Automatic annotation (TrEMBL):
This is DNA methylase adenine-specific domain-containing protein. The keyword Transferase applies. The keyword Repressor does not apply. Keywords: Methyltransferase, Restriction system, Transferase. PANTHER family: DNA METHYLTRANSFERASE YEEA-RELATED, RESTRICTION MODIFICATION SYSTEM DNA SPECIFICITY DOMAIN. InterPro entries: DNA_methylase_A-5, DNA_methylase_N6_adenine_CS, N4_N6_ade-DNA_methylase, SAM-dependent_MTases_sf. GO terms for molecular function: DNA binding; N-methyltransferase activity; site-specific DNA-methyltransferase (adenine-specific) activity. GO terms for biological process: DNA restriction-modification system; methylation.
Length: 1027
C-alpha cells in the first residue's frame, strides 16, 4: 500500500478547521499501516495495564505515541510531556527494555527517551513536517525510530537514513550512550579503557586527535557495537539470541564456539555492560541492525557505516581516508603477482580494503588450481595479515576478512583472523629491539614515550620475553593465564598470589632466563588490578605483540600493500615528534630547516614497514600523497638509502592527479612500487644494490570505474613522463624576485570592505566630502566572521579606497575594484594615536572593528587589527606607489596577470604586485605571466590540491625570466603581443558570469585572435623551453 498524499497534507495542517485529536490519531494509524514499516496493526487507546484507567493513544512495538491537537514548545507542553513520560516509565518497568516516547500533533514530532543515568525524560530528536512535503522524510524518520522493518538492503542510502549521524536513531543512541558513560566514567577500569583508546589514536592521528573528546569515544563505541552485530549477522549467527542475551555480543563467544577466533573480543568498548541499562541498550542496537538483510552484502557496507556515523570533517581532522576499491585492486594485482606463493601484509589496514583484494586474488587463483575450501582458508589465514592502530578499523577489517573468504567458510577448520590492533611503527621498542622483549608502557601519553626497556621508568611498564614467539597461541595463553591470576589480587595490603605454578605450565622455572622478568611483570599486573586497572591488559598485550611476531626474520612477508597514515610532522605530539626525528635520522629521511614541518609520517611508515616486515627481495605497493614523487621533504625517502644496510629500489610510480572524478583523497595522490634490498657489505660501494626512484613516472588519466580495476584499466590513458624532483633549492632566481611583494592582508573582509550609497534618502543630506557605507557581504564568508552583523557609517571619502583582489583580475585586464575603508591619510598608514585624533566617525569605526577583531580572532593570533592589516608591512609598502605596476594571482590552476596604472589602488593579499619602470616593461611581464608555458613550468613548484596547483606565490621567479631589455627583439615582440591582448581582453563581455568564467572567456578570445600561440612560442624561447 502507498500513503495518500492527502493524508500527509492533513498531518502537516493540524490547525485546519474541524481537526480533532481523534482525526490526527486516526491519520497516524493509517500512516503506520500503509507506509513501509512492517508493523502489525498499531493499537489505539490501549490501556496502560497498571490498574489505572490511563490509555496510550497509539502503541506499536517498543514505542508509545501520544497525540495532541497542537504542540508549541516544551515549557508550554510540559503536562503532555509528563503524561508521556509516565506511560514510557510504566512500559519500561513492565518488560525491562528501552522504550521510545513520541509526542506529536501530526506536524511536529518529538522523540523522547528516559535517561538511564538519572531517569530524566529528554527529547532526543525532532522532525517537522513542512506544508507541501511528500512525507518521505517523515517516513524515514519514523522507520529509524521504530526499527520494525526487515530485509532492507544495506545500501549507502539506507544505512545513512536509518543508522547515520543524520538519523533520529543516531541522536537517540548517542544520547543514551553518553548517559551510560556518565554512570561509569569514574570507574578505574573504564578510565583505563578510555585512556588506552586515546593513547592509540593520539599516536595514529597526532594533535588532530582531541583526547578529551568524549563524543568521539561514544561514536567509536556505537560503531563497534553495530559492527559486532553485523559481524554476527554476516556469519549467519542468530540475532534473536543476542537480543535475549546481549552480554554475549561483545565477548565473541558465538564466534569461538563456531571455531572462528580473533574477530570480536572484550576490549575498549565493553564498558557498556558495567552501566545500568547497558544490556537494554545492546538489545536495541541488535534490533536496529536486524532490520537489514546481511546475507549477501558488499564489503563496502562496513565502510559506509563508519562514514555515516563519523562525519567528513572529523574524518578529515583525523587523517582518515579510505582507498577506493578499484585502486586497491590495481595495486594488489601488480605486487601480488604469484598469489599462491606469496604472503602479504597491510601494516595500516584500515577497514580491510587491501586485505579483501588480496584474499579475493588468492582465492581466484586457488579455485583455478582446484584447491578445496579447507585448503584455501588455511592458506589465506597463514598468508594474509593486517595491522592497524585504530581500534574501530581493526574490527571492521576482521569482519571484512571473513566476508572475503565468503562461501569457503562453510567447509573449513578453525579460523584465526590474523588482523590485529598493533603498533606497526613499533614506536615503543628501543632501538631495533633485537633483545626479544616487548615493553608496554601502562601510563604513557602515546606510543612513543618509552625510550628504553626498563621495567620502571617515569611510568610503570609491562615487559614480556618473545622467546616463545614462534608459537603465538602459546604466548596468548601465557598472557591470559598471568592476567587471570593477577585478577585474584584485589587488596594491595595483602600478599600477591603466587605465579610459579602458572609459569611451570609453560615450562618456565626459576632457572630459566625469562623467569625473573615475568615475575616482575606479574607483580605489576597484580598492583594494577588492585587499583582496578588490570582488566584490559591481556587484550592489549596480545594485540601489541603481533607486530613484533611479524617482524621476526622467519615471519616476514613477501609483499607489503596498503595506504599508510598521512600525518604531518607539525600535527604530531611532542613525544611523537621526538621519536619521529630519531627514526627519520636512522633511515636518512630527516630534512630540517624550511621543510621540517612539511615532513609526513608516510615516508617513514613505508621505510619502517619495509625494514621490519618485508623479506629481502620482497615487493611493496603503497598509496601516497603526490608530493612524495617530487617534494624536497621526501628527498631522503626517494633516494632509497635507508640507513647503513637497508635499500629501497622503486621500480614504478603512478601519478593519479589526472584521474576523474576527483576527490577520492583530500589531496592529489600517487602510488609507489618497489623492492627491498640489503647492502650486506657497505665497504664495497660497487656492490651496492639498486636503490632510489626511476627517472620517469606513469601518468594515469581517465575516468575510474568505482569497484572494477580491469574496467578502469581499460579506460585509462597511461603516459610515461619525466619525474621532476625538487631537491635542494639552488637559490637561482629571476632578477624580478627581489621586487615582488604580496598584497595586504585586508582581513576579515566584513570589517573593511564596503558598498557606498550613491545618494542619501534623508532630506538632511550629508556633509560634503563624506560617503555613507555599509559592509559588503558575500556567500564565501566563513565563521566566525560570517555571523558578524553588518556595520554602516558615514565617513570622509578620503578613507575609502579602490582595492584589487584575485576576483577582480582577468588575463590582461582588471574588473571593477572593490571598495574598502582603510586607515590611510595622505598616503601614510595611520597609527592608533592618529586614528584617535582623526574624524569622530573614523575613530568610532576603528574602535568598533578593532573590538570585533579582538573578540573573534583565533586563539593563536597575538596580533592587533592594525598589526594584522599591515603584517610584514604589506600595506605600507604599497603607499606612494609608482605609476606602473604588474599584479598576478597568488594561487590557482592558471596564472593571470594585468597592469595597474593607478598608484592609489591597494592590492589585496590574493595578488602579488611588482613595480615596472614603464608601460613596456609592464606589458612584457604580463605577456610572460599569462603564457600557458609559464603556468606549466611553475606547476612543478606548486603545492597540489584536488583541483590542481595551489600557490604560485614567488615560485614564478624560480623560472629564468630575464630583466626587460627594450633592445631585445624577443622582448619587443612580447610587448606588442601584450598590447593586442589588452585590446582583446577589454572587448570581452562576460555579462553576469563570475570572474573564473570571465578569465576563461578572455583566454578563449586570445586563442581565437591568434595571440596565445605566438606569445607562448616566444616565452618558450625566452625561457629556454623550445620544443
Amino acid at each position: 500500500m502507498t500513503t495518500p498524499q492527502s493524508l500527509i497534507a492533513r498531518l502537516a495542517s493540524p490547525d485546519a478547521t474541524g481537526r480533532t485529536e481523534a482525526d490526527i490519531q486516526s491519520d497516524i494509524k493509517t500512516l503506520l499501516t500503509t507506509a513501509d514499516f512492517d508493523l502489525d496493526t498499531p493499537r489505539l487507546e490501549e490501556q496502560i495495564g497498571d490498574g489505572s484507567r490511563r490509555r496510550i493513544d497509539i502503541a506499536t512495538g517498543a514505542t508509545v505515541i501520544e497525540v495532541k491537537k497542537r504542540l508549541t514548545n516544551e515549557n508550554a507542553d510540559a503536562d503532555y510531556i509528563n503524561q508521556l513520560a509516565g506511560y514510557v516509565t510504566t512500559r519500561m518497568n513492565q518488560d525491562g527494555s528501552r522504550y521510545n516516547g513520541i509526542l506529536t500533533d501530526g506536524k511536529t514530532w518529538w522523540l523522547f527517551e528516559q535517561s538511564p543515568a538519572n531517569g530524566s525524560f529528554a527529547r532526543r530528536s525532532t522532525f517537522e513536517l513542512a506544508p507541501g512535503a511528500t512525507g518521505v522524510g517523515l517516513i524515514e524518520w519514523l522507520q529509524a525510530v521504530l526499527a520494525t522493518r526487515s530485509n532492507i538492503t544495506p545500501t549507502h542510502a539506507n544505512i545513512e537514513s536509518l543508522l547515520g549521524a543524520s538519523s533520529p536513531a543516531y541522536d537517540q543512541d548517542v544520547a543514551y550512550l553518553l548517559d551510560l558513560y556518565a554512570q561509569v566514567r569514574t570507574n578505574p577500569t573504564v578510565g583505563l579503557k578510555r585512556d588506552l583508546w586515546a593513547r592509540l589514536l593520539r599516536s595514529a592521528l597526532g594533535t588532530g586527535f582531541d583526547a578529551d573528546n568524549n563524543k568521539l569515544f561514544i561514536d567509536h563505541t556505537l560503531l563497534v557495537v553495530e559492527a559486532s552485530v553485523i559481524g554476527h549477522a554476516v556469519m549467519g549467527l542468530p540475532l534473536d539470541d543476542l537480543i535475549q542475551h546481549p552480554e554475549r555480543l561483545l565477548s565473541g563467544d558465538e564466534f569461538r564456539q563456531a571455531g572462528i577466533y580473533n574477530v570480536i573480543e572484550s576490549g575498549f568498548f565493553d564498558w557498556i555492560l558495567l552501566a545500568k541499562g547497558g544490556q537494554q541498550y545492546l538489545s536495541r542496537i541488535v534490533k536496529r541492525i536486524q532490520m537489514f538483510d546481511w546475507s549477501d552484502i558488499d564489503h563496502d557496507a562496513l565502510k559506509i557505516l563508519y562514514e555515516s556515523v563519523i562525519n567528513a570533517d572529523v574524518r578529515k581532522g583525523n587523517g582518515e581516508y579510505y582507498t577506493p576499491d578499484w585502486l586497491a585492486e590495481g595495486v594488489t594485482a601488480k605486487v601480488l603477482d604469484k598469489p599462491l606463493e606469496q604472503s602479504a601484509l597491510d601494516p595500516a589496514c584500515g577497514s580491510g580494503t587491501f586485505l579483501f583484494q588480496a584474499i579475493r586474488r588468492i582465492i581466484t587463483a586457488a579455485e583455478a588450481a582446484g584447491w578445496d575450501s579447507p585448503t584455501i582458508v588455511e592458506h589465506v589465514q597463514s598468508h594474509v595479515f593486517g595491522l592497524d592502530i585504530h581500534p574501530v578499523s581493526v574490527l571492521l577489517a576482521r569482519v571484512t576478512y571473513l566476508l572475503a573468504l565468503g562461501e569457503h567458510l562453510h567447509d573449513r577448520g578453525d579460523v584465526w583472523v590474523p588482523v590485529h590492533l598493533g603498533d606497526s611503527m613499533q614506536w615503543y621498542q628501543p632501538g631495533d629491539h633485537e633483545e626479544n622483549v616487548i615493553t608496554i608502557n601502562t601510563e604513557g601519553v602515546d606510543l612513543a614515550d618509552v625510550q628504553n626497556a626498563t621495567l620502571f621508568s617515569i611510568a610503570r611498564t609491562l615487559t614480556f620475553p618473545l622467546n616463545s614467539m614462534g608459537d603465538t597461541d602459546t604466548f596468548d595463553q601465557l598472557v591470559t593465564a598471568m592476567t587471570d591470576r593477577a585478577k585474584e589480587h584485589t587488596d594491595p595490603a595483602k600478599p600477591r598470589p603466587e605465579i610459579d605454578s602458572v609459569l611451570r605450565r609453560f615450562g618456565i622455572t626459576s632457572d630459566t632466563k625469562d623467569y625473573a622478568l615475568l615475575v616482575e611483570t606479574f607483580a605489576t599486573l597484580c598492583d594494577l588490578n588492585a587499583e582496578g586497572r588490570d582488566s584490559i591488559w591481556g587484550f592489549y598485550i596480545r594485540n601489541q605483540v603481533r607486530p613484533l611476531w611479524l617482524s621476526m626474520p622467519s615471519r616476514r612477508v613477501d609483499v607489503l600493500i596498503g595506504n599508510p597514515p598521512w600525518v604531518a610532522y607539525r600535527y604530531m605530539t611532542p613525544d611523537l615528534q621526538e621519536k619521529y626525528r630519531a627514526f627519520a635520522d636512522r633511515y636518512n629521511l630527516w630534512h630540517g630547516g624550511e621543510v621540517a614541518t612539511q615532513q609526513d609520517l608516510v615516508g617513514l611508515f613505508i621505510t619502517r614497514s619495509v625494514a621490519k616486515y618485508l623479506n629481502d627481495g620482497g615487493t611493496f605497493g603503497f598509496v601516497t600523497p603526490l608530493a612524495v614523487l617530487s617534494r624536497k621533504a621526501y628527498e631522503g625517502f626517494r633516494a632509497g638509502r635507508w640507513g647503513t644496510y637497508l635499500r629501497g629500489e622503486f621500480t614504478e610510480t603512478w601519478d593519479l592527479e589526472k584521474m576523474r572524478p576527483r576527490g577520492f583523497f583530500p589531496v592529489p595522490s600517487a602510488v609507489v612500487f618497489g623492492m627491498r634490498h640489503t647492502f650486506h657489505d657497505p665497504t664495497k660501494i660497487s656492490e651496492e644494490p639498486a636503490c632510489g626512484f626511476p627517472p620517469t613516472k606513469k601518468m594515469l588519466s581517465g575516468r575510474r570505474v568505482r569497484n572494477d580495476w580491469p574496467a578502469t584499466y581499460e579506460a585509462l590513458t597511461i603516459t610515461e613522463k619525466k619525474n621532476v624532483e625538487l631537491g635542494a633549492d639552488t637559490g637561482d632566481r629571476s632578477p624580478y624576485n627581489e621586487v615582488v611583494v604580496n598584497g595586504a592582508t585586508i582581513f576579515p573582509r566584513v570589517l573593511f570592505f564596503v558598498v557606498e550609497q550613491t545618494q542619501t534618502t534623508s532630506r538632511l543630506g550629508r556633509t560634503q566630502g563624506t560617503t555613507t557605507v555599509e559592509s559588503y557581504r558575500t556567500k564565501l564568508e566563513k565563521e566566525p566572521w560570517k555571523s558578524q552583523p553588518s556595520w554602516s557609517a558615514t565617513l570622509p571619502s578620503r578613507y575609502v579606497f579602490d582595492v584589487h583582489l584575485g576576483s577582480t583580475l582577468v588575463p590582461f585586464g582588471l574588473l571593477k575594484p572593490w571598495r574598502a575603508v582603510l586607515p590611510i591619510e595622505r598616503q601614510q598608514l595611520m597609527d592608533e594615536k592618529q586614528i584617535h585624533n582623526a574624524d569622530n566617525s573614523m575613530r568610532d569605526w576603528w574602535r568598533d572593528v578593532s573590538q570585533r577583531w579582538e573578540d573573534n580572532k583565533t586563539k593563536q593570533s597575538k596580533l592587533s587589527l592594525m598589526e594584522n592589516l599591515d603584517y610584514q608591512r604589506k600595506l605600507s609598502k604599497q603607499l606612494n606607489a609608482v605609476k606602473h605596476r604588474v599584479v598576478y594571482t597568488a594561487s590557482g590552476n592558471t596564472l593571470a596577470a594585468a597592469r595597474v596604472t593607478k598608484p592609489s589602488v591597494i592590492i589585496d593579499h590574493k595578488l602579488y604586485w611588482m613595480p615596472a619602470s614603464g608601460e613596456d616593461e609592464a606589458k612584457y611581464l604580463t605577456a610572460i605571466l599569462n603564457s600557458p608555458v609559464t603556468t606549466e613550468m611553475v606547476a612543478v613548484y606548486q603545492s597540489r590540491g584536488l583541483f590542481g596547483g595551489r600557490d604560485f606565490d614567488k615560485n614564478v621567479w624560480r623560472l629564468p625570466i630575464p630583466k626587460f631589455d627594450p633592445a631585445d627583439p624577443l622582448h619587443a615582440q612580447l610587448v606588442d603581443l601584450a598590447a593586442k591582448a589588452e585590446e582583446v581582453a577589454a572587448g570581452v563581455d562576460a555579462g553576469t558570469y563570475g570572474f573564473q568564467k570571465h578569465r576563461q572567456l578572455v583566454r578563449n578570445a586570445l586563442a581565437e585572435a591568434g595571440i596565445t600561440e605566438p606569445m607562448n612560442t616566444a616565452v618558450k624561447t625566452l625561457l629556454g623551453e623550445d620544443d
